[in-house]
Protein: SAM-dependent methyltransferase, MidA family
Organism: Paracidovorax wautersii
Amino acid sequence: MTVNPQKEQASVMTNALAGRVRDAIAEAGGWIGFDRFMEMALYTPGLGYYANESPKFGTLPESGSDFVTAPELSPVFGRALAAQVREAMDATGTDEVWEFGAGSGALAAQLLQTLGDRVRRYTIVDLSGSLRRRQQAALAAWEGRVAWADRLPERFEGIVVGNEVLDAMPVQLLARHGGAGTGVWHERGVSLGEAGQDAEATFAWADRPTALRPPVEPEGPQDYLTEIHAQGEGFMRMLAQRLARGAAFLIDYGFPEAEYYHPQRHMGTLVCHQAHQVDSDPLADVGAKDITAHVNFTAMALAAQDAGLHVLGYTTQAHFLINCGLLSQLEQLPQAERAQAAKLMMEHEMGELFKVLAVGAGPEPWQPMGFAQGDRTHRL
């Protein structure tokens, strides 16, 4: 029998992380909120999904990857975004770019290559040591201009970009047992299930009554499961406190509030990604797969606005990229690459589900080019 070293290592890692989570549950009296579980599953140093050595990003499962993001899909994504970043730097009088969660480093390379000397410094804020090493290898050509940081400074200026960052921030789960007006809300967390013979206890869902509520009460007589985004909203408030001058462009999949808490979305948006397959069981294979929730863009925009930032625009990824010159970029590609890049704006691919939210810090709001046509800020 042939042993796959990668699979064996992944199994050891998963077991070690599961042990850490079991210890945390025991120390907390037998129950932890899902946000705590998600944080441990994704970010435990050396063991969590984003902190371990697994490939993660790629176009095919044969590479060992779990999902593909827009910069890996086609370099025209970064080139189109670069047009917006350049305009934003000119409008705000800044010359630095700050990227959150830079993944493989593909987007940073695309932006640096396209913007050239217009970017004086490119700082990547990433907690993952393994991803940082990959980024440093991918960005070796810009050594001296690219820096890494564990956190934002207390005050900074520049243009912030974040592609699929908000969806990876831990969320709290709320479960309503019963219909609108009469149902009782619970926070859904994680406890220990039954242990099999010669086996550690598995993880199990456990609900506790809570005073927490979603921002709107979903209509209908059905039970309802959903998420609230305290960490994402906290991130937006932190941006407002620390960004002295500049703008932020956040690209992710999600909905405005009215769609997020629609009666038909009664099973929530939480999903997992592994080997380019989607599943709905975050309690299994802890640390070996991505856990993510769609973004409530209304909550993000309100948190930013209430903390002092201007909401500069909100639209679909398709509208944003087309406004930034994607179509002319596509014309220059060979046919095979053009078909791949077109997925960035196709409605049934990334074009409609992915949105772009822009916020700005400065004395006056301005309209970025990415929202010139198709702005949906009024729907937030």
Observations:
- Confidence is low (pLDDT under 50) at residues 1-5.
